[in-house]
């Protein structure tokens, strides 16, 4: 079975929280399953409430397109092959760094989405979480 379980999501979130604490930036951390549905979300103390929605949408986006959101951002600039993609899927697409697919046996089975810091911080925290999967 390749589904992202709650136990998996908690492990991923725990590793991401640890990284967020190390860099001193409170984050919103969301984990989605294969269908892009949220399995778990954590808003660390003092993390921006506006980033709750963004973290969940980053997880959805990363799973929906099986791509790191920072890479999608690169291709969605004016003139890029995915320009305008953020307007698709009823506004659920986030093209900021911080979303990373979770893979098992080379197959994308879910994603993590992190929001609350700079793009580099969000990506670093998401990478730490994804590595724990």
UniProtKB/TrEMBL annotation:
What domain of life does the native source organism fall in?
A: Bacteria
Pfam families in UniProt: HbpS-like
Cleavable signal peptide: none
Q: Please report the name of this protein according to its UniProt entry.
A: ATP:cob(I)alamin adenosyltransferase
């Amino acid at each position: 079975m390749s589904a992202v379980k709650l136990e998996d999501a908690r492990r991923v979130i725990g590793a991401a929280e640890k990284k967020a604490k190390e860099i001193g930036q409170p984050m919103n951390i969301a984990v989605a399953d294969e269908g892009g549905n949220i399995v778990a979300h954590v808003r660390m103390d003092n993390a921006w409430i506006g980033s709750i929605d963004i973290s969940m949408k980053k997880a959805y986006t990363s799973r929906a397109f099986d791509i790191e959101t920072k890479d999608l951002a690169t291709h969605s600039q004016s003139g890029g092959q995915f320009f305008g993609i953020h307007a698709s899927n009823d506004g659920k697409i986030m093209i900021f760094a911080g979303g990373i697919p979770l893979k098992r046996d080379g197959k994308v089975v879910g994603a993590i989405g992190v929001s609350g810091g700079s793009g580099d911080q969000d990506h670093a925290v998401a990478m730490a979480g994804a590595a724990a999967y």
